[in-house]
Predict the structure.
Amino acid sequence: MDTDADTLTVLKSSFGYDSFRGLQEEIIDNVLAGRDSLVLMPTGAGKSLCYQLPALMFKGITLVISPLIALMKDQVDALNVNGIPARSINSAQSRWEMEEIQGEIRQGHIKLLYAAPERLALPDFRSFLHSLDLNLIAIDEAHCISEWGHEFRPDYRNLLQMRQDFPQVPVIALTATATQRVREDIISQLDLHEGQVFLSSFNRGNLSYSVYPKSESISLLMSMMQKLKGQSAIIYCLSRRETEELADGLKRRGFEARPYHAGLDAQTRRQNQEDFVRDRVPIIVATVAFGMGIDKPDVRLVVHNSIPKSLEGYYQETGRAGRDGLPSECVLFFGYGDKARQDYFVNQMESPTEQSHARQKLSQMVDYAQSASCRRRILLEYFGEEWTEENCGGCDVCLRTADDFDATEISQKILSAIIRTGERFGAVHIIQVLTGSREKKVLDLGHDRLSVYGIVRDFDRTELREIVGQLRARGFLVRKEGEYAVLAVTPEGREFLQQRKRLALPRPQSPKDEERHHRSRRSSEPIESGDYDEKLFQELRSLRRRLAEANNVPPFVVFGDVTVRHIAASVPLTLEHFASIPGVGEVKLRQYGQAFLKVIQEYAEANGLPPVTYDRLVRWEVGNEPVGRERPSRGRGATYEATRELLSQGLSIGDAAQQRGLARTTIVGHLERISDQEEPLDLTHLLPSPERLSEIEQAFHSCGSIFLRAVWECLGPEFSYEEIRLARLYLRQEGRLPQE
Ligand code: ADP
Ligand code: MG
Ligand code: ZN
């Protein structure tokens, strides 16, 4: 059997995904080959799959060492919900519970056993392990073994003994630690020198970074919270008092927020954390103690209300945003008062070396905050990674410089118009004059006879308003509040005019532009807000929360945001269609499919989404376009064309995916779209062998279905989803698919 098809099949049936990400496939192959691996990938890259999938393919059991009970519990829940037999043994369990679990494990059905490192020191546990058919040891959060790391756990040292006790069992160690020193330490501590090191970039492409002045924090926070629409945010503060005050302030303004800090009693802390993880409150206002033990994948915003101590800490804490790969924001508010507070802490330190170390770290952090160059570059270079892109497209500096334009002339025109009309009018009138309006007031005042009348052609009124706003922000204009809001030119503004200075301003943005930016920095996931119906999305989220509460698991264990967005964008009305959504594995389909379909059907009826025809359904399935809903065209044509170009040059799906930086499934999706067009593509070089093709064709007929999942189930695990999909495409072109 082709192992490649095999892992892909398990990937879909047990985890619901169609393709591997990044280095996952290579790592899994290495693990399956029985070799050691060290996996260095950033948060959210999908490290867990690298041991979870092999665990399913091994005959015996995989031991997973994980530092925190809460983390273990979430992971075990998430696996169980996917129908994967996993258990944990931990100190929160009674003796009786533990024995029951051990009994279950002895029966041999359990594939993954999670345990904390301290357990490895217990002789009972060790002899229990020896009685098992242990195939793999996975060490999650492996940086905990290093004293140089920020989360050193002495108990991780028990792993050395473990290594000696089970010399024949391969080890996979995983961490998101970006520092060189810690990485080297892991390798030497675990004696991994013969293992393979898998290192991916630590760039978090879905995160955007920005810094704002602290003086703006309150108003900006409000607008950010508004924009979140109930999705999750973490706000980090320096002190306990600050967290309490900010949480109160947010509550007074109508945003559900909870504080979290070491001064709260354990019960309250646990409750606040759980309410956040379970989506009962969207915002947590915390000291940096918060977040170590949680793996919430759908945090959309991480705010630092004060400057943190080091870039290392900052990368770590912002890393808690967007683990699921969806676009998320990291915002830092910077003010000198906060820097002074940090300086004070540094000065309190006793050891001079410690002090100078801390001072250096703080100053690197301040440099980041004040930088005029790409923030992503600073972060990555701090960790020794080279970043060569001119413009990252996902930090405030790059977005600004990408868009700065020479505003000298337009600003001169605006200021002159204000002066010529006697500094007695507001922005609306000034803009009318500049754009040559035939408005009665303009004509009555004789402003159409001024030299500035109608001299602006290349900006529309909205853009001009924005430039006027920029000029106010620069201090060139003031608004005199009187009966009417009147604009006047300040001394700085006059100086600018007289000295013929040059001026660059951010290019005014129409909503279209903003979309363009966002698109430009997202490489993979096609689903963005705007691709789906927000109201439906919210209904699906609340269904997810109800199901989660009923099963006593966090909502993201039911389905992640990526999946919920896909559902909202594609409006599946049948189980077959639902099954094709990324993140829907077999067990989740059985467990939650009907509940979701019911909500979707009701929503579709109430909102007049037309019933889905068979043909459109298939087309959806292949093209990932929302059904029953016109969507503004976003120039998808160009992306299909680019794919067509590559494939018609004879490239394979994999090569085309690599060239375009897209997932294989996306490429196949494009292909299916293209084949709807007049000039279908020659598919022959993409098809499975003639024998396999004919087997697939027979399956389509004998199952009497054109749905992938049904046919895939008929065919069994030797066939991959992708080849069936490609075959279906070909058979459709040839008119050889069964009619319904
Ligand atoms: P890490 O441990 O590296 O921080 P996780 O293992 O928690 O990351 O995975 C992050 C997210 O990515 C999870 O929501 C997971 O389900 C998802 N994921 C992992 N692998 C894939 C894949 N091949 N396709 C789609 N999603 C994936
Ligand atoms: Mg992880
Ligand atoms: Zn940048």
